[in-house]
């Protein structure tokens, strides 16, 4: 079917309303019936749309239409012309009117508004700069922006302002990040191929919430400086090297550890391919024209340009990923917190505590239950007293529910260790605090292990961790959905006093379903590391290492970096090397040189001391193997 000369031969009737019609020939109809459609309204809307396209101005200033909006409307107009030329009913024309009306409405709503982006502190939220901006950071550069910190509270390890981080270990630890913490302290963290990560820190209170601050980081490869409102607050002299291309330059978070997201508004971002002097920092901190020499990227971030804006210079783009809110006129967000559920939960918990009777007999609440629950109640009340944010309040409600569930479901009885279930996302492990420190001594670590299977998580090392405190690590190897480790079933004992050293069992010794007692020793007099299984020496090697204190404040059983899939018990650490005959022996808990002892043979409170009284252990989602 075709329409005869629709654009130029409009048949004008003599009706008072000047009804505009057009004629179609039905080439596919045997009787070739002529049809007429009403396009007056459509033609008027086409004219309106084309006038908008001709007269409107696109740009990034308030009142402009967003870049690309004219092209989008033109695409709809082009489709409408096609629809007219290919219509076979009045319904087709009416449908085109609806689509064009919607297109015009969308265009009219696309004006650039005065607004500033609020990064809402949800994991996975950040602004990613395009690759050509990231490439600038391979050479000396300066990066700066203004931040309005809504509050200082942390969602993850830190609140990161600028970051380009590659954290794959060794020579693959490269990049930088500028971050602050809940106490207002700020860190510069840089790394290169050779030197590893180096962190320098300010005192607490350098940044505050509730006001705009201007932050400048100057990176000169071998020395770096951080300025707040034009004043130098921190330096770092560690060598720097940029990350590989797949690790992006981000604002407001770190990739790939994307829970290090801040809670702040951001504007006036700039990237320079030179190191600014203190005088230049103060000259430009209140604003730039956008034409300055060496300024390679400039995003005012003061108008809502959508999720993929181009900078003022036209060099780079930004991608908004995650949860943002554009605050009209830069109005800071007002956070309203609902404490009702938390108050009710505290009341329920307090009432429950009054009914608890602790003891050591089967069926009693374990000793320490009341202390732990009261601590949970006090911490929850502290959130109300100090006006915590909603996320922390909701988290406290969940913690109270979890604490009550644990107390009701874990009364005193015999147990065959504690299990960390790989398939249960809530099963984190057994956390020991404070961390154990070797302090230069020889030592023996004993732990009984029973694996559920040699299936492990989908991690690069294809393994699981039985014990880890950041300096001493016992790992086994298995298989996952992607591959089977070449070390399948083997054990590896790591030590770290500046560099990682390790020894492997020469063959697969882990058989799922069977308990084995593993003893790892370090003899500092000879620098010898050894692994024993059930009192039998499996491997011994002179690595030359000496013992050192752990960098972590705690120690993990069943986790660390890689979660295990199985159970542990009889955890003992000695400040000397045991003989094979001493390994796995029955203990009282007050033996000489015994530093730590968790039998894990009776259900305990969620947080309970070890047999020596030196340490406490906390059940983090693990389950008791109750008899």
From TrEMBL:
UniProt keyword annotations, A-Z: Signal
Organism: Flavivirga eckloniae
InterPro entries: ConA-like_dom_sf
Residues spanning the signal sequence: 1-27
Any GO BP: carbohydrate metabolic process
The protein, known as: LamG-like jellyroll fold domain-containing protein
Xref: SUPFAM superfamilies: Concanavalin A-like lectins/glucanases
A molecular-function term among this protein's GO annotations: hydrolase activity, hydrolyzing O-glycosyl compounds
Annotated coiled-coil segments of the chain: none
Stored PROSITE patterns: PROKAR_LIPOPROTEIN (PS51257)
């Amino acid at each position: 079917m075709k329409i005869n000369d629709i654009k130029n031969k409009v048949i004008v009737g003599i009706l008072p309303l000047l009804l505009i019609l057009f004629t179609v020939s039905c080439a596919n109809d045997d009787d070739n019936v002529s049809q007429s459609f009403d396009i007056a309204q459509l033609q008027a809307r086409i004219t309106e749309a084309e006038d908008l396209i001709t007269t409107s101005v696109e740009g990034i200033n308030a009142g402009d239409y967003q870049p690309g909006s004219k092209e989008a409307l033109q695409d709809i107009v082009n489709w409408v012309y096609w629809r007219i030329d290919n219509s076979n009913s009045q319904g087709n024309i009416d449908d085109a009117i609806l689509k064009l009306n919607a297109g015009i409405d969308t265009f009219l709503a696309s004006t650039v508004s005065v607004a500033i982006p609020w990064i809402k502190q949800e994991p996975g939220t950040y602004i990613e700069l395009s690759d050509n901006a990231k490439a600038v950071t391979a050479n000396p550069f300066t990066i700066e922006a203004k931040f309005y910190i809504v509050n200082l509270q942390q969602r993850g390890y830190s609140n990161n302002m600028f970051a380009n981080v590659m954290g794959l270990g060794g020579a693959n630890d490269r990049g930088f990040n500028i971050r602050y913490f809940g106490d207002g302290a700020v860190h510069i963290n840089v790394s290169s191929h050779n030197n590893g990560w180096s962190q320098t820190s300010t005192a607490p209170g350098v940044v505050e919430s509730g006001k705009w601050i201007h932050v400048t980081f100057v990176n000169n490869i071998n020395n770096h400086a951080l300025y707040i409102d034009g004043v130098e607050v921190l330096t770092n002299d560690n060598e720097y090297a940029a990350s590989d291309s797949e690790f992006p330059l981000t604002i407001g978070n770190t990739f790939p550890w994307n829970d290090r997201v801040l809670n702040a508004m951001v504007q006036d971002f700039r990237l320079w391919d030179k190191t600014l002097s203190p005088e230049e920092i103060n000259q430009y901190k209140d604003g730039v024209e956008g034409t300055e020499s060496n300024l390679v990227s400039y995003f005012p971030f003061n108008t809502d340009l959508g999720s993929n804006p181009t900078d003022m210079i036209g060099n780079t783009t930004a991608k908004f990923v995650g949860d943002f809110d554009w605050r009209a006129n830069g109005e800071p967000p007002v956070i309203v917190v609902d404490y009702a559920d938390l108050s009710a939960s505290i009341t329920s918990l307090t009432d429950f505590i009054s009914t608890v009777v602790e003891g050591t007999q089967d069926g009693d609440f374990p000793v320490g239950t009341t202390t732990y629950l009261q601590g949970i109640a006090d911490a929850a009340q502290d959130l109300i007293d100090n006006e915590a944010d909603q996320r922390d309040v909701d988290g406290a409600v969940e913690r109270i529910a979890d604490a009550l569930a644990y107390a009701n479901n874990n009364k005193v009885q015999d147990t065959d260790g504690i299990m960390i279930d790989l398939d249960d996302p809530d099963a984190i492990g057994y956390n020991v605090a404070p961390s154990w420190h070797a302090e230069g001594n020889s030592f023996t670590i004993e732990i009984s292990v029973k694996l559920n299977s040699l299936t492990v998580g989908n991690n690069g090392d294809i393994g699981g961790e039985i014990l880890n405190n950041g300096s001493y690590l016992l790992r086994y190897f298995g298989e996952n959905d992607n591959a089977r480790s070449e070390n399948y079933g083997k054990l590896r004992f790591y030590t770290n006093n500046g560099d990682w050293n390790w020894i492997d069992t020469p063959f697969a010794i882990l058989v799922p379903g069977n308990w084995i007692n593993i003893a790892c020793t370090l003899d500092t007099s000879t620098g010898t590391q050894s692994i024993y299984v059930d009192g039998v020496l499996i491997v011994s090697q002179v690595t030359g290492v000496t013992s050192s204190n752990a960098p972590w404040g705690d120690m993990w059983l069943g986790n660390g970096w890689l979660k295990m899939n199985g159970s542990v018990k009889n955890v003992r650490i000695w400040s000397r090397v045991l003989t094979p005959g001493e390994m796995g022996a029955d203990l009282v808990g007050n033996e000489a040189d015994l530093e730590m002892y968790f039998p894990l043979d009776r259900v305990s409170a969620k947080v309970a001391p070890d047999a020596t009284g030196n340490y406490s252990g906390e059940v983090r989602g693990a389950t008791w193997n109750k008899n």
